[in-house]
Specification:
mainly beta, 3 domains, five-stranded mixed sheet, 21 strands, 45% strand
């Protein structure tokens, strides 16, 4: 038994000596031991990236799940450097006009006084696939006048989501389209539809919570939920302020609230009804409806 241990010890010692000798030789050749063992840094664009979403529409405040997959399609190992303070796989979201509303996460401000190497070597084995699930809530980050970081809902519409390998020269996936729906919708109803001079017109503006979550609308006065009538560029009728106790409203899922403006049409002419809901959980809504007094 003691002879076997001694032999094993010699084997281990000889192996360690060879590894250290190889590392020293690599240093003489201008390569570090890590490069000698893992090979030189490769081209990260070799790694292919794909992205998929768990559904094709989302409302602000809901979380859309995006799966980003990175694949080494080659039969050899590929390695490259990555900033360890940022995610390796991430997403970018653009609106229809190309505006970036969600960019890949970076490292932020790294003080130069900190003596620390934030780069790490990432190694993809031959054929290896890595995945990450990234959430997006149909919101974009911004700063208030007081320099506080806040999130605002993006406008409704179609957005392109791209998965990416978050390194310099990393690959990007094909764009995946997602539709951002409104949380609140606004409609106008008029009775009678074509009034005559002297008729009393009932104009109803309705706000509906289209989401599956309760929504709190703060400050629900005419400053946020307005309704008025214009004729020849002048306002001829409008709602007054709500009482104080009505200024905040918790609107349950798929429920509505409304305001009614009663106006007596005094003369014939073409009018325009306007309803406005100031931005809270989504950007401002402003809709119009023509009204002909005959």
């Amino acid at each position: 038994m003691s002879g076997q241990v001694a032999v094993a010890g010699k084997v281990v010692a000889r192996t360690l000596t060879l590894v250290l000798a190889g590392a020293a030789l690599a240093c003489d050749d201008g390569l570090g031991p890590l490069e000698e063992l893992l090979g030189p840094l490769g081209d990260p664009s070799i790694i292919t990236v794909s992205a998929s979403i768990d559904r094709d529409s989302v409302r602000p405040g809901e979380t859309l799940q995006i799966t980003v997959a990175a694949t080494n399609p080659t039969s050899r190992r590929v390695s490259f450097e990555h900033w360890s303070c940022s995610p390796l796989l991430d997403i970018e979201v653009r609106s229809a006009d190309g505006t970036v509303v969600r960019s890949a996460r970076g490292c932020g401000f790294l003080p130069q006084s900190v003596d620390y190497d934030w780069t790490r070597r990432v190694v993809f084995a031959a054929g290896e696939i890595r995945q990450a699930v990234v959430g997006w809530t149909a919101q974009r980050a911004g700063w208030t006048a007081e320099r506080e970081l806040v999130s605002w809902a993006v406008p409704s519409g179609v957005y392109d989501i791209v998965g990416l390998l978050n390194v310099r020269g990393g690959s990007r996936s094909e764009a995946v389209a997602v539709k951002v729906l409104r949380v609140l919708t606004l409609t106008i109803d008029v009775e009678p539809a074509v009034p005559a001079p002297g008729d009393t017109v009932a104009i109803t503006a309705t706000v509906t919570n289209e989401s599956d979550q309760p929504v709190t609308i703060p400050d629900l006065g005419s400053c946020r939920f307005g309704l008025w009538v214009r004729r020849a560029g002048s306002v001829v009728a409008y709602l007054t302020e709500c009482p104080w106790e009505e200024r905040q409203l918790a609107l349950f899922p798929h429920r509505s609230t409304w305001r009614v403006l009663r106006w007596q049409a005094d003369e014939p002419g073409d009018c325009v009804i306007l309803a406005h809901l100031a931005g809270t959980v989504q950007p401002d809504l402003l809709i119009t409806k023509p009204l002909a007094v005959r």
